[in-house]
Amino acid sequence: MRTRDLTGDSTQVVRVPTTERPRVNQKTKMKVRDLEVWYGEKQALHGVSMDVAENEVTALIGPSGCGKSTFLRCLNRMNDLIPDVRIKGEVEFENQNIYAPEVDVVELRSHIGMVFQKPNPFPKSIYDNIAYAPKILGQVRKRTDMEDLVEHSLKRAGLWEEVKDRLQMPGLSLSGGQQQRLCIARAIAVSPSVLLMDEPCSALDPVATATVEQLIDELKENYTIVIVTHNLQQAARVAGYTAFFHLGNIVEYSDTDSLFTHPREKKTEDYITGRYG
Ligand SMILES: Nc1ncnc2c1ncn2[C@@H]1O[C@H](COP(=O)(O)OP(=O)(O)OP(=O)(O)O)[C@@H](O)[C@H]1O
Prior knowledge:
By secondary structure, this protein is α/β, with parallel strands linked by helices. The protein is 32% helix and 26% strand. Helix 7 (206-219) links the parallel strand 9 (194-198) and strand 10 (224-228). The protein is globular, with a radius of gyration of 19 Å. The model is unreliable at 1-16 (pLDDT under 50). Its EC number is 3.6.3.27.
């Protein structure tokens, strides 16, 4: 594994593997160490380590089956829901290993939210899609506070103007792109600091994709975003950092410009130039 000097101070050279930490002085929001995942007998991640930069968008790219979604789901323990899964290693968030036995997973997921590939609004009204989780979590009790939260979340997701006159309509009556923004609004309503997005645009047309990409760009001011995408142009457009996964390992992790213009590894170059995958 390659290393580089992160201090610039020749008297105190700290060497950190480049796959873990993309840039000098980058504040780290989540720290993943030696993550191994098995589904039954099949190992999907082989000791992956990575620092996730705060208030940045980090893209996970790589060929089908290389472990991107598995890695993403480990960041808020979504894999716990899969039978026969076994996870080793550490994922640190706010100075705590999220796999420690005392961690409350429901609360954890209110800090680290998730948006899925296919928009999946609840079969409820637009209003209730947003209000449901803050209510269940006891975050908001007064009706007027909830109305404010619903409005604020929909505005943050760039959907307010389109739905403000029909908040009691079913979320499922919206278009695909609107449903995905509703899901983003729902995720941010509980005030997470990290948003995980698993191919959030793959079911959307180019216009809706552009809207969601613009939203991701705006959200990164307040949120740390990790996004799985098959679309290399999308990674190049939205992400400050990109990790290239292959066969359950990270081959290369760096700032997006460097990864796409000067990949260090031959495998990365082959992938981004379309020689395989
Ligand atoms: N629920 C599961 N049960 C068993 N095996 C799984 C499960 N989810 C993923 N896998 C296996 O783990 C490996 C990694 O899958 P994962 O979905 O993480 O890859 P990916 O890079 O996100 O793929 P894609 O780009 O096709 O979505 C694959 O071999 C896959 O078949």
